């Protein structure tokens, strides 16, 4: 399968956005670039930009490999993408509001009711409640893949608690430290303003109980969580408190944090704790990570929770295949960003097709994430396919299937110079009084030749992502 | 911006453990010096290292006898020993990660790098001849952390809680070293004020990095009155009890001004500091040096607990 390379059209023809970078690269000595890669790693390690791997005690903190070759997008490419993303996040919020109120979209027959009723991600507790500012999913990481010059697909919407934004910022920081000259030659739009936008965005949806400047806090499960570095990073960069469940309590109808001077109310909480663990009084009663009573306070206007509980219903993989209809239903215009064609195994015809074409398809669990529990047809063995087929027949509603996409490639630095590797892109989007999209995002790259799995938990790396000003 | 009680607690303990790592290294340094001579009056210098660090019970539960290599390993690398250099730095760094948002990037990196570098070195066994180089490494990394702390941190309550942790730990350490060696200061057969075993005392002063400054402050001879004065009451000596309490009381005064609340721990600190100001060496000796130090160590611990309660370090407070 021939993939679209974002840098090289052929061996001697370079795509426009990469022209200046490529020229610079040809003047570099690849050995000294290799040394720079070592420097970058030492830098990440010293900074503590690590993620924790569950169940691997020896390598409890690991680095996500960083590749020095930036992924570059032209202004026009990005602008078109950003328009599509904006349309999509507006639709997602409208969809959530509708689902938790009148469910017009179901009445209109656009999506089947069975996908909502009985779906674990749909929270009854949110029914009839409208969060401050009418915003449900404040922070979104839309996963996008590219297959050709003008061919972009949304892979996933990540409307719960997308992570990775700290890597976006640290990758840029590293590149600017190591290659300042590149930023003098290329006009790259900044990404380091993200925490500033996040803070503004959160402050703009303060709850009714807030008087004066809103007090914001980030809620983390604690230092053993895989994304703890990011939680601390964001709190630090925004200049807000990083709290754990044990630091906060419901007092006098507010959620308050225990400070050295006594309890102080929090107005907006950016929680990096999953719905199930958020409030042991309402959800998982054994949760030690959450805040007992927060849902009551929330419903009474005492706090804003970002993202709102129950947003998971909108990025559910079973819902995903209906996104084109959803976008059109709420925005009145056809979706500007395409979905990946998806077979819903719940439907008999689709299931039959999927079982007959397992070799060419990627089959995913509806509720899975992180690249686990999926079958990548083209690289699977016969035995793996047979086992998977059984699982499929047993519980077809649990799966969707998509064609194996020829993901675009961007070169990475290897011993002999450059070599193409598959990438995806996660731009970060903030929804509040307005939609704020940070130009760029996190480019994840499959470091193994030919591999299509970019997840950091499975050997993926990252790249700095540039959006050019002109 | 408000400071979380848990963050104040994390800062306090991070700095206690940074201080402790270095103190453990200094104790080993003195232990090795003394054991290398046959002049020592005490047969088991290595045992007194363990006693000074307050870990003799933990050691005896695991080993018999005081073989130098075993003691060195226990004090440097052993994870079962919460005061070993490795455990201390690990605890300091875990606390540092937890309070990451309260630290400057430079300070966090200094802590993280120290942990990385020292941990890597301690992953290999340390033979006795390599000990001085390892101790030097620990001291240098400690200096890096403290220097970064002094030059990059805002002078706010974060700074105060960090100082409280560092100086309460340091006061405890100096008091323990003295208490383990007090019998050497006042042996029955010698007169108070007479010259003492030169080498022993040089080594003890060395364990608090003060063998040069002692000579600067007093005449060259090692006299019990001077050494007690130096390590306990001299406010120019940065590891003396009195100096530690100057910083502790000052830090609490800043917190008082900042929060406009006067907590019980302020009175406790003031009372301890006053006792150090009002006592003369002679009075301390007449009243019993060991008793004085015992009381001090207990009061110092109580102050640490009160600070935790008064500033809501823990849930339910």
Automatic annotation (TrEMBL), chain B:
Residues 3-311 form the DUF403 domain. Pfam families: Alpha-E (PF04168). InterPro entries: ATP-dep_Glu-Cys_Ligase-2 (IPR051680), DUF403 (IPR007296). PANTHER family: BLR5612 PROTEIN, SLL1039 PROTEIN. This is Alpha-E domain-containing protein.
């Amino acid at each position: 399968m021939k993939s679209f390379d974002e840098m090289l059209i052929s061996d001697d023809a370079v795509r426009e956005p990469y022209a200046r970078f490529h020229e610079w690269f040809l003047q570099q000595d690849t050995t000294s670039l290799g040394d720079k890669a070592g420097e970058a790693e030492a830098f990440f390690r010293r900074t503590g930009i690590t993620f924790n791997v569950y169940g691997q005690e020896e390598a409890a903190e690991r680095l996500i490999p960083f590749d020095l070759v930036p992924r570059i997008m032209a202004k026009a490419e990005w602008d078109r993408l950003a328009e599509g993303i904006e349309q999509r996040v507006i639709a997602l919020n409208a969809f959530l509001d509708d689902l938790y109120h009148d469910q017009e979209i179901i009445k209109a027959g656009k999506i089947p009711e069975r996908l909502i009723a009985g779906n674990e991600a749909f929270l009854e507790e949110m029914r009839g409640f409208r969060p401050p500012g009418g915003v449900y999913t404040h922070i979104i990481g839309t996963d996008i893949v590219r297959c050709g010059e003008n061919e972009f697909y949304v892979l996933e919407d990540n409307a719960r608690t997308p992570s990775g934004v700290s890597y976006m910022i640290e990758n840029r920081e590293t590149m600017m430290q190591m290659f300042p000259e590149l930023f003098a030659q290329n006009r790259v739009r900044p990404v380091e303003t993200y925490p500033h936008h996040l803070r503004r965005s959160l402050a703009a949806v303060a709850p009714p109980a807030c008087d004066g400047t809103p007090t914001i806090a980030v809620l983390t499960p604690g230092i053993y969580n895989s994304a703890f570095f990011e939680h601390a990073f964001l709190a630090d960069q925004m200049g807000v408190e990083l709290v754990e469940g044990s630091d906060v309590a419901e007092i006098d109808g507010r959620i308050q944090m225990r400070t050295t001077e006594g309890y102080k109310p929090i107005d907006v909480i950016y929680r990096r704790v999953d719905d199930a663990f958020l409030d042991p009084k309402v959800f998982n009663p054994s949760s030690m990570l959450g805040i007992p009573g927060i849902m009551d306070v929330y419903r009474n206007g005492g706090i804003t929770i970002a993202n709102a509980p129950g947003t998971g219903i909108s990025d559910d993989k079973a819902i995903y295949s209906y996104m084109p209809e959803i976008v059109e239903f709420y925005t009145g215009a056809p979706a500007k960003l395409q979905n990946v064609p998806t077979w819903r195994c719940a439907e008999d015809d689709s299931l039959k097709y999927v079982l007959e074409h397992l070799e060419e398809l990627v089959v995913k669990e509806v509720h899975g994430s992180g690249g686990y529990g999926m079958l990548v047809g083209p690289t699977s063995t016969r035995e793996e396919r047979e086992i998977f087929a059984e699982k499929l027949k047993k519980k077809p509603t649990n799966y969707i299937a998509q064609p194996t996409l020829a993901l675009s490639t961007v070169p990475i630095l290897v011993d002999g110079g450059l070599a193409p590797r598959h990438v995806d892109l996660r731009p970060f989007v903030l929804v509040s009084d307005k939609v704020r999209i940070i130009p760029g995002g996190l480019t994840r790259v499959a470091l193994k030749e030919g591999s299509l799995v970019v997840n950091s938990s499975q050997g993926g790396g990252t790249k700095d992502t540039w959006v050019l000003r002109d | 911006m408000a400071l979380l009680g848990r963050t104040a607690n994390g800062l306090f303990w991070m700095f206690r453990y940074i201080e402790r790592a270095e103190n453990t290294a200094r104790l080993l340094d003195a232990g090795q010096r003394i054991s290398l001579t046959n002049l020592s009056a005490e047969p088991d210098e290595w045992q007194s290292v363990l006693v000074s660090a307050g870990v003799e019970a933990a050691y005896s539960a695991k080993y018999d006898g005081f073989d130098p290599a075993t003691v060195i390993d226990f004090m440097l690398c052993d994870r079962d020993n919460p005061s070993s250099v490795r455990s201390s730095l690990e605890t300091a760094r875990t606390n540092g990660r937890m309070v990451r948002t309260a630290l400057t990037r430079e300070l966090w990196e200094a802590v993280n790098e120290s942990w990385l570098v020292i941990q890597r070195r301690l992953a290999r066994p340390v033979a006795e001849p390599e000990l001085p180089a390892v101790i030097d490494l620990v001291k240098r990394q400690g200096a890096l952390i403290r220097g970064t702390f002094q030059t990059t941190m805002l002078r706010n309550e974060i700074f105060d809680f960090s100082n409280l942790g560092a100086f309460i730990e340091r006061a405890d350490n100096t008091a323990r070293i003295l208490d383990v060696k007090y019998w050497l200061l006042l042996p029955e057969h010698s007169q108070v004020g007479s010259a003492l075993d030169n080498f022993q005392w040089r080594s003890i002063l060395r364990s608090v990095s003060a063998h040069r400054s002692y000579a600067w402050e007093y005449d060259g001879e090692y006299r019990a009155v001077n050494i007690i004065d130096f390590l306990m009451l001299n406010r120019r000596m940065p590891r003396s009890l009195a100096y530690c309490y100057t910083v502790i009381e000052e830090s609490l005064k800043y917190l008082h001004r900042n929060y406009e609340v006067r907590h019980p721990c302020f009175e406790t600190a003031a009372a301890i500091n006053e006792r150090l100001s009002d006592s003369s060496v002679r009075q301390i000796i007449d009243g019993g040096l060991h008793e004085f130090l015992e009381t001090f160590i207990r009061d110092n611990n109580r102050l640490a607990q009160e600070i935790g309660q008064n500033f809501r370090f823990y849930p339910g407070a």
